[in-house]
Amino acid sequence: MFNRIKEKGLDTFYLNPQIYFDCNNELLIENCKRIEEYNEIFMRLVSGALYIQIWGSDLRAYDFKAKGLIVRGKISRVEFIERGRKENEKQHSRKDKN
User: Fold this and answer.
1) CATH code at 36?
2) Is 11 inside a domain boundary?
3) Assign residue 64 a region: left if phi > 0, alpha if psi is -120 to 50, beta otherwise?
4) Does residue 7 lie within any of the structural domains?
C-alpha cells in the first residue's frame, strides 16, 4: 500500500521523468537529477527511480537547468533501468565471481 501512495505522490508532484522525442535527433528529459556518464556515443542519466541510458552518435547535452536536460545527436537506442535493480545486478555478479 505504501508503494502505491508513493507512486501517486511522485506522479502528482511531477517527480517521475517526462521524456519527449523529436524523431531520433533530440530528447527533452524533465526531472533529470544528474548526468552520471557522458561521451559522444553513450549517456547515463539519473531521473527519479530510473537510470536512462542513451546510445547514438555525436550526442551532446544542452540546457541542463531546472532539473531538465536536452540531448541532441543521432539517437539509436534509449533504455530504462530501475535504479535498485542495477545495484542488485552488481551484487549478483560479485557473488558469481567468488
Assistant:
1) 2.60.40.2000
2) no
3) beta
4) no
Q: Using an 8 Å Cβ cutoff, are 38 and 67 in contact?
A: no
Residue 12 covered by a domain: no
pLDDT tens per residue across span 13-68: 546 778 899 999 999 998 888 899 999 999 999 988 889 999 999 999 988 776 68
* Residues 28-43: tens digit of each pLDDT: 998 888 899 999 999 9
**Rounded-to-integer distance, Cα 32 and Cα 48, Å:** 7
For the chain, the domain total comes to: 1
Strands 18-22 and 50-65: unpaired
Tell me how far apart the alpha carbons of residues 90 and 87 are, in angstroms, rounded to a whole number.
5
Q: Which set of grid coordinates corresponds to residue 51? A: 537510470
Please choose, from the candidates 37, 27, 32, 28, the residue with its C-alpha nearest in 3D space to the C-alpha of residue 17: 32
